[in-house]
Amino acid sequence: MHNVAILLLFAVGILTATRAKANILKIDQRIIGGTAVTINSFPWQVSLQSSGEHFCGGAVYNENIVITAAHCLQDVKISTLKVRVGSSYWNSGGTLVAAAALKWHTNYDNLTQVNDVAIIRLATNLTFSSSVKPIQLATSDPVDNAAAVVTGWGRTDVGKYSRPSELRAIDVNIVSRVKCSSSRYGHGLYVKPSMICTYANGKDHCYGDSGSPLVSGGLMVGIVSWGYGCALPGYPGVYADIAYLRQWIVTNAITI
Q1: Domains detected in the chain
Q2: Of 204, 192, 193, 190, which Cα lies nearest the Cα of 233?
Q3: Higher model confidence: residue 244 or residue 235?
Q4: Among this protein's residues, is 157 annotated catalytic?
Q5: Is the confidence at residue 70, as pLDDT, over 70?
Q6: Does 116 qualify as catalytic in the annotation?
Q7: The overall pTM is greater than 0.90
Q8: Where is the secretion signal located (predicted)?
C-alpha cells in the first residue's frame, strides 16, 4: 500500500508539472545552458507573440505556415497573435506578421501532452531570405545519442524574470523513446509514442522555449513540449515527435 501511495504521488507530481508548464509559459521562461546565436544560423526559428510579448517559439514550414506546440495556443486570441520572423531578437527587427488561422491536433491532450502539435496560417506570405527559411521535416526518428540543437528566447537564470532578447541555442543528444521511458530516467510511462526526448547535463529547454524546433541532421525532429523541472538530473527534455506527427502537419497545412 505504501508503494502504491508513492507511485500515485509521483504520477500526480509529473502530471501537475506537465500541466503547469503548459499554463505558465508567460511567467517562467528560460533556456538552460545555452549560448547566443544569430537567426541566419537558424532561419526557420520564429517568435510567437501576444500583445507585444514573446510567449512561445515556432518554426517556418512554408511561405505561410508555422509549426508550434498545441499547448502554446490554448489561451491565445488570434486577433492578438503575431509571429516575428527573420530576427535574432524577439522584440525587434525582422518582420512581424499577423495570424489568419490556427489549428492544433484533434487528439491533443493538455494533461499528458500527447500529440502536442499545432500550425498557424499567416495572414501574408513570407519572403524567404538568408534570415527566413523553411525547415524540412524528418520522416524517421534520429538514432539514440544523435547530436541535436534546440533554440529559443527563454530565460537563462531561474532567479530572474527578465529574458534575453537575443536568440539562444543548446546542443543536446537524442534519447530513444525506449530508453527515455525506461527506469533509467524519471519520466517512465509518461513518454508516449508521439514524443521524443533529449538529454545533456545541465542543458534543457524550459517553459518559454515551448513550440520551438528541435533539429538534428538538418531536419526538424521535434517540437519543445514538456519536462519535469528544467535540466534536472535524470529527467530528459520531451518533445513532440515530428516523424510520428508529420502526416498530420502535411495534411492540415494544406487544408487550414
Answers
A1: 43-134+247-254 (2.40.10.10), 135-243 (2.40.10.10)
A2: 204
A3: 244
A4: no
A5: yes
A6: yes
A7: no
A8: 1-22
